[in-house]
Design brief:
Elements (H helix, E strand, L loop, with lengths): L2 E8 L3 H8 L4 H4 L5 E7 L9 E6 L4 E10 L3 E8 L4 E12 L9 E11 L5 H26 L3 H10 L1
Antiparallel strand pairs: 1-7, 2-3, 3-4, 4-5, 5-6, 6-7
Length: 162
């Protein structure tokens, strides 16, 4: 099962980093280069068991479910419906202090994707292609997310919704 990862050191605390990562709707569209449309299903706020319906800028649709939600340190999601070529897909985001002795030093955000492709006989090739494409995607997303973590408009919006 391929695993894709990207990390970024942020100047904000973990609570702020976590809150920005969990924005939805217009707030999310303001910073996430992957998302064309996104909405929560089965809840008004992200939480374990809540689902998210996402349409990518490529037109791909996926429904994911939060399988873990530990504010402000960790989020895990799994695909429950998605593109035909994924047998499964999961994502995890972790937020940890850069310096455990100094929480004001910032936060390290680490994002991971794992997936398997189908049909299984094609996975040796499809996994390599998927790994390349998803690595490029996750790096662009985490860079845009890092910029959002210091964007005054994004930060104001998370404090308004709270």
């Amino acid at each position: 099962m391929p695993r894709i990862e990207a990390a970024h050191d942020l100047t904000v605390d973990a609570a702020t980093a976590f809150a920005v990562s969990q924005t939805h709707g217009p707030q999310r569209l303001a910073w996430d280069p992957f998302v064309k449309h996104q909405e929560l299903v089965g809840g008004s706020r992200p939480a374990k068991g809540v689902r998210t319906h996402t349409v990518s800028r490529h037109g791909l649709k996926m429904v994911t479910e939060y399988v873990s939600f530990r504010e402000p340190t960790q989020v895990g999601m799994k695909m429950v419906e998605g593109p035909w070529f994924f047998a499964n897909f999961a994502a995890g985001w972790a937020f940890a202090p850069i310096d455990h002795d100094d929480p004001t030093a910032g936060t390290r955000a680490t994002w991971r994707y794992t997936f398997t492709t189908r049909p299984s006989w094609l996975s040796p090739i499809a996994d390599r292609i998927g790994t390349r494409l998803l690595q490029r995607d996750i790096e662009a997303r985490i860079a845009a997310y890092a910029a959002a973590c210091v964007n005054p408009e994004v930060l104001a919006s998370i404090h308004q919704t709270g």
